[in-house]
Specification:
The structure is a single chain. The protein is built from ten helices and no strands. The chain has 211 residues and is mainly α. The protein has a domain of 75 residues.
Length: 211
């Protein structure tokens, strides 16, 4: 059982058996936090299924929106940043709506910076970079992807670094920097092989076809 659910039970018993005042509000907060995390996790799984199968699940966005509502209620800004990222990611990836995505992704990045949620920040910057690339702002896209990559390197998130290097490879190709593109593809390959990221390896193979 989630510790927060167990804690809510203990608080309930304190209220019922001991007459302790105010603890039911604490119990609500414990359950809200657990529900927020669960909604986010379920939405993330539905997003993974979309990536695998290409079929939108109508429950995905409401789950992310519910998690955002609860994190805001709890004044959990790092949680809010993560929920905003997933809302932006949904708009960008599922609905292919970059305009709708950028606002949520920007707010996510701002909150993540404020709270030191660097993993969330790395994701928000990656997808802001994708949005910039798709709108033809290649220098901005490169800057955002490079910042995301540096954060992921600091966190030891090597699979995420490899994924970003694929994006940077495509940017180098688009900016007519073939030597940089080849070096980035080589670095991405080494990282993907070291982490067993076969999907990333397939993406690198596709990127090399454009060199």
């Amino acid at each position: 059982m989630d510790d927060r659910v167990e804690r809510s039970r203990e608080l309930y018993e304190q209220a019922i058996f001991n007459g302790t005042e105010g603890v039911l509000a604490q119990a609500d907060a414990e359950l809200d936090a657990a529900e927020a995390d669960l909604a986010l996790a379920r939405g993330r799984l539905l997003h993974g299924r979309f990536i695998a199968g290409g079929k939108e699940d109508p429950a995905e966005l409401p789950l992310f929106q519910r998690s955002l509502e609860l994190y805001r209620k709890l004044a959990d800004q790092s949680g809010e940043a993560e929920a905003l990222f997933w809302i932006g990611c949904f708009y960008q990836v599922v609905w292919q709506d970059n305009d709708g995505a950028v606002d949520a992704l920007t707010r996510s990045a701002d909150l993540a910076r404020e709270t030191g949620a660097n993993l969330t920040l790395s994701y928000a910057l990656r997808h802001l970079g994708i949005a910039a690339q798709q709108s033809g702002q290649l220098d901005l896209a490169r800057s955002r992807l490079e910042e995301s990559t540096a954060l992921r390197q600091d966190l030891g998130f090597l699979t995420g670094v490899a994924a970003n290097l694929v994006g940077l490879t495509y940017l180098a190709i688009a900016q007519d920097r073939p030597d940089d593109a080849a070096a980035l593809a080589d670095e991405a390959t080494a990282l993907a092989e070291s982490t067993g990221a076969t999907n990333i390896l397939a993406q690198i193979t596709e990127a090399r076809r454009h060199l």
